[in-house]
């Protein structure tokens, strides 16, 4: 009988664990992540009127030996950074990542991305109702999106 109680408890716990996954799935912006063009992805995220800013730093290699693993760091010195969104225009899908921050969080991310070919890496920062951006050109020597 103990085993049956354990199995029932295990199923109940796993069902509760799925609730946050479903909530996360509801937040996922499928059209933005499936968009093949930069402007489509930005429109799906409702990003418009983007201002270039020197308060955003993108650290990425000038030349990536292999586009399958390109490390990107983005730091925002813009007060009240709410999100950092990373795009690569010449990828099969332009939107790479969308990081959301809680109030008081430092606007800094490090991630590894795939790049299909040489392109600009575009970082868009949201603060309040305004968007700011910076970009860095990364030359890809070996295709990473096959």
Commentary on this structure:
The protein is an alpha+beta fold and 146 residues long. It has a single domain, classed as Immunoglobulin-like (Sandwich), CATH 2.60.40.2470. Helices cover 26% and strands 37% of the residues. Strands 1, 3, 5, 6, 8 and 9 form a six-stranded mixed beta sheet that branches. A hairpin with a 2-residue loop joins β8 (119-127) and β9 (130-140). The longest helix is centred in the first third of the chain and has 26 residues, at 2-27. Mean pLDDT is 86; it is low at 21-26.
In short:
The chain is of the alpha+beta class and 146 residues long. It has helices spanning 2-27, 30-34, 38-44, and strands spanning 50-52, 56-59, 63-64, 70-76, 83-88, 95-100, 108-113, 119-127, 130-140.
How widely separated are the two ends? Answer: 53 Å
**Structural class category:** alpha+beta
Work out the radius of gyration.
19 Å
Which residue ranges are poorly predicted, with pLDDT under 50 across at least 5 consecutive positions?
A: 21-26
Number of strands: 9
Helix-strand sequence: HHHEEEEEEEEE
CATH C-level category: Mainly Beta
Shape: globular
Using the 3D structure, state the CATH architecture. Answer: Sandwich
